[in-house]
Amino acid sequence: MGYESKVTPKKMQISIPSYFRCPISSDLMKDPVTLCTGNTYDRESIQRWLGDGNNFCPVTMKNLETQELIPNHNLRRLIQAWCVANQSEGVERIPTPKQPLERPQVDLLLRDIVSPKRRLQAFEDLKSKAKESEENRRRIVEGGAVNVLASIVASNNPETRDFNYSACEEAVGTLALLPIDENDRKMLTQSKLLSVLSLVLCTGSLQGKRNVASLLEILATNRDECIVIGSVEGLIGSLVQLLEEDLHRTAVKTCLRSLLAICSPLRNRVKTVEAGAVKLLVELLPEAERGTAELTLAVLELLCRCAEGRVAVSEHALAIPVLARKIFRVSDLATDSAVVTLWAICKYSPDKKIQRRVIESGVLSKLFFFVQTDYKSRIKLKAADLLRILHNACRDQVAA
User: Fold this and answer.
1) Kindly report the CA angle at 289 between 236 and 230, in degrees rounded to 5?
2) Is residue 30 a part of any domain in this protein?
3) Theoretical Cys-Cys bridge with 243: which of 85, 117, 181, 280, CB 3.0 to 4.6 Å?
4) How far, in Å, CA of 303 to CA of 269, rounded?
5) In what order do the strands lie in the sheet with 32-34?
6) How many domains does the chain have?
7) What DSSP string describes 235-253?
8) 378 lies in a domain?
9) 395 vs 5, residue with greater confidence
């Protein structure tokens, strides 16, 4: 149940008592908690403050001996009573917030996860609690959940029939909900664990594959981790295959975000192209909604930073017309990616036929817009350079 209450014209006219407002956000507190300094804040606001690395009270500026947040039940009841008293003015009562997990609860859930008889229900309960709040996710991690979940994944052997897909997929899905720090990422990118993830991505359920794609996006935060992930046999190919397999598009965005994260090293971009990603991405574009189109174009732009990607885009009959059509049709992000991709395939291709195909796509008038307006400098420069390349192609064609 959410804490947000509807704001009506009547409610906007009501003066909220100052002691009901959070000192950080100035909004009506929904879940008031008190710091060791005695000052009270809305839980969401103070958690964000502490999460940004601040270890002092926003009001008193005193250093905190502890970051423990104590629920202020009395103040919450007063706020709820005030809301009820003003219902006729359009104020809705704030529901009683769910309290964060306590360590004994985390320990019990993790013990149940280890037990095969209680495992599935424990997974559901743990994921439900993790989705409730950032505080719950932090406490779950502090309780040792990452190690427990990783051990369940690692207990499966890809080389034998001793493979519990259900438990493995649930463990991966739970891991994908949690904040993973550097040490945990190193543990989760060990070759044995990644081999298990690759097998799930290849032969698991659609939800299991989506869980793996989500986790891979989290793990691929630097070049070294990306290289390790990309070196696992069949992993990138299975991730690309997911784009074609997912007929209902429930995992496409997750898959695209994962590819964006993994493909920062050149070798991974080449593997992604060799796995047939360009064909799938181009054919995904025409009917893609905004978010999917932005991600698809971003992946294509990234793949065109390698020669193999540029060749694959150039050779696909639909690629250039679709890229040209997406300029100004989706969003600024999509437009930028489409322009840079067209620039890359024209800039680095010796085949003049490609430039002529770009001209035939009707992109020239759009490129003139970038040059003549106060658009972002990076894209404006790319558009100007692409115009120069296309102008030279036209001149050479006339001369011939």
Assistant:
1) 10
2) yes
3) 280
4) 6
5) 40-42, 32-34, 70-71
6) 1
7) HHHHHHHHHHH-TT-SSHH
8) no
9) 395
